Structure formats: C-alpha cells, structure tokens
UniProtKB/TrEMBL annotation:
Name of the molecule in the record: MFS transporter
Database matches in InterPro entries: MFS (IPR011701), MFS_dom (IPR020846), MFS_Efflux_Transporters (IPR050189), MFS_trans_sf (IPR036259), Tet-R_TetA/multi-R_MdtG-like (IPR001958)
Presence of the UniProt keyword Metal-binding in the record: no
Keywords: Cell membrane, Membrane, Transmembrane, Transmembrane helix
Gene3D superfamilies from the UniProt entry: MFS general substrate transporter like domains (1.20.1250.20)
Residues in Major facilitator superfamily (MFS) profile domain copies: 4-386
Compartment(s): Cell membrane
Biological source species: Streptomyces fragilis
Length: 407
C-alpha cells in the first residue's frame, strides 16, 4: 500500500471524527452555551449544510490547482473551522464554525479519491479509494468514542482542539507522503471550471448521484433512529448503546474494504449486490431487534452492507466523468449528506405515523429497492452514452499524466 494512501486516511479520520463526535457532545454543548438540546442539534445540520455547499463549490474553484496543494488547503480550512469551534463564545458563532468545518469535507474526499486512484495500478483503484475511506469508518470506532470521552472529562472545547491536532498531523502526512503531480509533456492542461461542469452533463453521472442519495437514504432511514430501536425494542440500557454502536463502525470498516475489493472486479455488480444486501438486512431488522443479541447482529450487518457501496459508487461517478472527475467525485459526497437528511426525514415519517419503533427499517428497505432501480437506469444510460459517443471519457487519467506512484 502506498504511504500516500495512509496520509489520505489520516485526513479522513479527522473529518469523520469531527462530523460524528458532535452527536455525543450535544448535552455538554447545550449546557455550556445555555441552549436546549434540540437547538444544539442544529450544529449537526450546520455541518451537513457546509458539506453540501462546499463539496461542489470548492472542487469547482480549485479545478485548475494541483491536487496535492488542494488537499493541503482543504485541511487548512478544516483546522481553521475546528479551531474556531473550540473558541466559539456562543451558539451562533459555533453554528458558523461548524458550517465552515463542513465546507472542506466533500471536496477532500472527492479530490482525495482522484489522487488515490493515481497511486495504484488500474485494477486496484477501488481498493485505493476504500483505503482512504477506512479513515472515516475507523473514526466511528476510535475517534468518536475517544472524542466524546475527552469532551466529558475536559469539556467539549478540548475535543475540537484535539481534532485540530489530527488535522495538523494530516497536513504533515499529506505534505511529506503525497507526491506532486507530474504531467507528461503532451498531457492536456487541467480542464478548469468549465470542463468540470461539462462532465456533469452526463445523464449517467447524475443517475449515479441519484443512486447514492436513494441507496444511502436507506441506511439513514434506519440508523438515524437506531438508539430507540436498541433501547425500546432490543432491550438495551442507554449506557450500553454506545458500545453496541461501535459494532456499526466495525461493520462499516469491513464492508468498506470488502466493497473496494469487489468493485475492482465489477463496480456496478457490487452496487447491485450491496443494495440487495441492505434491502434484506432492513427487512429483517424488526425480527432481529426482538433480542439484544439480534440487535447487535443487526447493527453489525447494517454497517457491513451499507458501506459496501462507498468505494464502487465513488469509482463509478469518477469513471463516468473521467476527464474532470474532481467535481463529480465531490458531488457524490454532497449526495451522501443529502441522503443523511432525506433518509432521516423519511424514517421519521414512519415513526410519526405510529408504525412502531422499528418501522424506519422496512421503510429504508423500500428506498434500497428504489436505489437498485436508479442504479439500473444509470447502467443503461452509461451504455447508451458510450454507443452514441457522448461520454466525457472512458477512463480515468492515464498513469503518465498522474503523480508518480509511491513505493
């Protein structure tokens, strides 16, 4: 494994930690700033909004920049946002700081995915993306629990200070381990903003983004309400929920690495298989949640099946917008966050309708089936575009126009 992939994973670890640790810090933040927990919950939404806005915006405005430099600037913005979060004097300032922290999230994963694929042989590109994304999944196993514990013992500001240190470590790793791009003499110049936007004219690209929204919405329809499922249906005490949820991070790490390996053989096949597995898992959720052992198995399986989709969807959108993959790849991260908001809303409708505490899971299975349909349309659109010659490109940049591989 090239050491540069480790540098990308360190950045992903920091981003994953700051994204999810707020959920564990809400009581401390609310008490310290004198706001209600629901009001403090807006800090989660502010970060997600920053991701949705920043992913395409920052990828577009940095389209002509050398990608290693872009990653360094993005991590600098990440450190700034978390530093301001640690110093925020009130709730309003913290909302702004959380929005700022979310801006580089999607662009980092988008540009980082493109860089990751240039560091390995073509048959290992999906695995390289999965390696970077492992930093995100491991953050749910290590970063979030440790960050939550640190916030409980030393105050929530200490957690964001620690995240800044992770960001600084990522900057150092990116600077020393990620090689600069070396372009061949006959290589085309960077496409710039116009070229990046042109890549989004492809119908198949938009359908891959739609697959991410609908398919990942299935995950968040259930996972957004996993705590009441575990306490009210499976019978776990509230104090035990955090430990059980760590199984989701373990499952997500396994699924991510598995999805990367399978996607190197067939990205679309992995997406169809992953969505099918998510459908079955969510259908059996109410049955599994009848016991504590079953609830633990359900959480683990949801992590495995849902995160099998990460690397193949990222690779698919990059390949179908291959002459200008940074914007499309970043947009896929924005789509994932839209899925977070939309899936939680749809799952909440099931609860509001009085269908039972586990009802968001079967509703999520419907979304997964819809995701299969959108993925099928994407595959058909891609084949049609290739037949008519309307594809942007058929491959990602050739090795000679990309950074030299790290040994």
């Amino acid at each position: 494994m090239p050491l540069a992939l480790l540098a990308l994973a360190v950045g992903a670890f920091g981003i994953g930690t700051t994204e999810f640790v707020m959920m564990g810090l809400l009581p401390q933040v609310a008490a310290d700033l004198g706001v209600s927990i629901p009001s403090a919950g807006h800090l989660i939404s502010a970060y997600a909004l920053g991701v949705v806005v920043g992913a395409p915006l920052l990828a577009a405005v940095t389209a002509r920049m050398e990608r290693r430099r872009v990653l360094l600037w993005l991590m600098g913005l990440f450190i700034l946002g978390n530093g301001l979060s640690a110093l925020a004097p009130d709730h309003t300032w913290l909302l702004g700081a959380r929005f700022l922290s979310g801006l580089p999230h999607g662009a980092f994963f988008g540009v980082g995915s493109v860089v990751a694929t240039t560091l390995v042989a073509p048959e290992k590109r999906a695995r390289s993306v999965a390696t970077m994304l492992t930093g995100l999944t491991v953050a749910n196993i290590v970063g979030v629990p440790v960050g939550t514990l640190l916030g409980q013992q030393l105050g929530w500001r200490a957690t964001f200070g620690a995240v800044c240190l992770i960001g600084a470590a990522a900057v150092a790793a990116l600077f020393f381990l990620v090689p600069q791009e070396k372009r061949a003499e006959n290589a085309a110049p960077p496409v710039g903003l116009r070229g990046e936007l042109a890549a989004l004219r492809s119908v198949s690209v938009w359908l891959v983004l739609g697959t991410t929204i609908v398919g990942s919405g299935a995950l968040f329809s259930a996972f957004s309400y996993i705590t009441p499922m575990l306490t009210d249906a499976a019978g776990y005490a509230e104090a035990s929920v955090t430990l059980v949820l760590s199984l989701f991070g373990v499952g997500a790490t396994i699924g991510n690495l598995l999805g990367g390996r399978l996607a190197d053989r067939s990205p679309s096949g992995t997406v169809f298989a992953g969505l099918g597995a998510v459908t079955v898992t969510l259908l059996f959720f109410p049955l599994l949640m009848d016991t504590r052992a079953g609830g633990a198995v359900a959480v683990l399986l949801l992590g495995v099946t849902a995160f099998t989709l990460g690397a193949p969807l990222q690779l698919m959108v990059m390949t179908r917008a291959a002459s200008a993959p940074s914007l499309a790849s970043s947009a896929n991260q924005a789509a994932f966050n839209l899925a977070n908001a939309g899936g939680a809303w749809i799952g909440g409708l099931a609860l509001s309708a009085g269908l039972g505490v586990t009802s968001p899971a079967p509703v999520g299975s419907v979304l997964a089936v819809l995701g299969i349909g959108v993925a099928a349309l994407s595959l058909l659109a891609d084949r049609r575009e290739r037949r008519t010659g309307r594809v942007v490109a058929t491959h990602l940049p050739a090795p000679e126009s990309t950074p030299a591989r790290a040994e």
